[in-house]
Amino acid sequence: xxxxxxxxxxxxxxxxxxxxxxxxxxxxxxxxxxxxxxxxxxxxxxxxxxxxxxxxxxxxxxxxxxxxxxxxxxxxxxxxxxxxxxxxxxxxxxxxxxxxxxxxxxxxxxxxxxxxxxxxxxxxxxxxxxxxxxxxxxxxxxxxxxxxxxxxxxxxxxxxxxxxxxxxxxxxxxxxxxxxxxxxxxxxxxxxxxxxxxxxxxxxxxxxxxxxxxxxxxxxxxxxxxxxxxxxxxxxxxxxxxxxxxxxxxxxxxxxxxxxxxxxxxxxxxxxxxxxxxxxxxxxxxxxxxxxxxxxxxxxxxxxxxxxxxxxxxxxxxxxxxxxxxxxxxxxxxxxxxxxxxxxxxxxxxxxxxxxxxxxxxxxxxxxxxxxxxxxxxxxxxxxxxxxxxxxxxxxxxxxxxxxxxxxxxxxx
Amino acid sequence: xxxxxxxxxxxxxxxxxxxxxxxxxxxxxxxxxxxxxxxxxxxxxxxxxxxxxxxxxxxxxxxxxxxxxxxxxxxxxxxxxxxxxxxxxxxxxxxxxxxxxxxxxxxxxxxxxxxxxxxxxxxxxxxxxxxxxxxxxxxxxxxxxxxxxxxxxxxxxxxxxxxxxxxxxxxxxxxxxxxxxxxxxxxxxxxxxxxxxxxxxxxxxxxxxxxxxxxxxxxxxxxxxxxxxxxxxxxxxxxxxxxxxxxxxxxxxxxxxxxxxxxxxxxxxxxxxxxxxxxxxxxxxxxxxxxxxxxxxxxxxxxxxxxxxxxxxxxxxxxxxxxxxxxxxxxxxxxxxxxxxxxxxxxxxxxxxxxxxxxxxxxxxxxxxxxxxxxxxxxxxxxxxxxxxxxxxxxxxxxxxxxxxxxxxxxxx
Lengths: 413, 413
Fold this sequence. Notes:
Two copies of one chain form a homodimer.
Chain A: E1 4-10, H1 26-29, H2 33-41, E2 43-48, H3 58-65, H4 76-83, E3 93-102, E4 108-110, H5 120-127, E5 131-132, E6 135-141, E7 146-152, H6 182-203, H7 206-213, E8 221-229, H8 236-239, E9 244-247, H9 251-259, E10 263-265, H10 278-291, E11 294-299, H11 301-307, H12 311-334, E12 340-345, E13 362-367, E14 390-393, H13 394-405
Parallel strand pairs in A: 1-11, 1-12, 2-14, 9-10, 9-11
Antiparallel strand pairs in A: 2-13, 3-4, 3-7, 3-8, 5-6, 6-7, 12-13
């Protein structure tokens, strides 16, 4: 059978028993007939994304779910760049940026340039393509005052300090090398030159002249943070020759997906919160399965409720995730797409009581026609710990799914 | 108690639910009272030979079961050489060969020299011991037109291309270095000289003169493929100081066993298929246990049925494997060999629906007097996933068995 994979990821799903939920986890407490259906029909287990007891971020968690290792982790900058639609190559150094308002002495008047919303595309264009000492600048606006900058050239380093002083009234912090490697100092020097040059260019830009006329703060400076170097890794879809797609709202998840070579399906109605449009998400996932071998369907609100220490909110989010899976399952049946393996996972646990990511393992399911099943009937942290997949790592989980696509190498003969 | 180990390996045993077997795996469906007896009396689990989700070949699977890691994998050539009764040392480069019929311009007339069956021992002798530029040739005939050649000398490389053009009418392909390492080019040059010299020697050989008189195609050339370098690994039986034996039919398995320092027990009645002589296999295993600490008893037909997508055939093969274990168990009882630990394993899964090796884990059992037991009562993929050994790797499994022999090192003090 030529299988396809639908991997549904509930962000931060894993949790701990909550007093307010009669000592159950939100996932145990929630009514989840569709998730339980998948658990009953499939094999279950628990998963440590990186290693037992180690919390991971959303970015690394997804990087692993999509087939990479912690050694491939490029830091925030490159992931934001990919999430922002940029294409990086090995050796590029990427920064998360703010448009800011500076005075003539590079002192920060407003770190967000009056929360500028319009004209940033033109401002970014004015910086994009800049070249300083043989290093090329790629620059692209993001939401509101945010932007991403990429430096491309030989001998760059990501070990440079942030230039954002984090406080109004202070000057832009000159970047320094974080270590004694000469490439770090070299990169910091270039970065400082670029920020000076950017200030010159932006100060004269028509968008800013017009803003000043309207009494708005000009976006005449750039603050950088989160430098990260893009490692020399290939897109997993190209390495293993399969087609993949990610249906998601969050730019971090979309960034990791694009880094991995996935196509992207997003929509304004995907809010990354409890008011997201699960009908459209489910229908996008079904459509994507027609043209892709592997589809990741991401759901965010579970994580937010964990961070907010809102067990009942998390229960609601889980029940919404369950409804989304119900829509997926019934559409697959209706379209007679029997060859789709449905997998459930999370990128990490976000226990309500901790309000942060934790190292608790997450429950997993793999459910497909003629694949092995076990005796577990519920999708939750406790039941799945008795499952037939046992306790595996994120890398194992990804490899198992790709083995069902028959795209991974056989070792030996 | 001074224990001994009997490791019974059903090749390619692991499978997936089959429609024709009411949604059961062949192992679940088969009547296997003896395998279930061992599961009930022992501890069970599931095993990933190399890593979860990665298919392995029979050669690597056995290499791991016998105590080696993937880094020790030497490629096909050396394993064929060992299987063919040759002894390799670290740095040797081995090739799988055909005797072929060439014309005077080294063009291939028949890739198998008329499927020659007789006289290959004499022809091989004529090449064995040849020396070119300080590199020694070891040459040995195998079944029919097949042979194995080993090059021994300093500075050789396995990164050389095959010389078999794979098609009649084409000349022998001169071997080339596969990379820029000078040792690769050097090895390719030597290999080409040897093949020219072999053509000279074989063309004049009495066996071939006689063949030509009878109107048969002469075996006057050698075609090579599958170069592999023997790594610097020691025999595990010598490293850990125990005696081991392998009862098997298949030359690949016998090759890995000899590489590992196992003695070999084989017989013409061991066919590597469903018509093999399980009574003799069982009795060989019992005999071997009297003189060895560790005996591997290999059974092949399960894998063949998987490759043929023959679930009912696989059920039959499994029931034959079960009968073989029944004979072993009753003989051990009869001979009061209470100290024998019986372990069940497979080298990989070969799901019928896939007709190829897959990354699905294989079920395992370890059953020995006064060793731990669990609550699992059936030997199959689903039951054993709940077993007391949990999900372990092939390397773990081997180490656990050798620990019962008390031959592995203790770490720390």
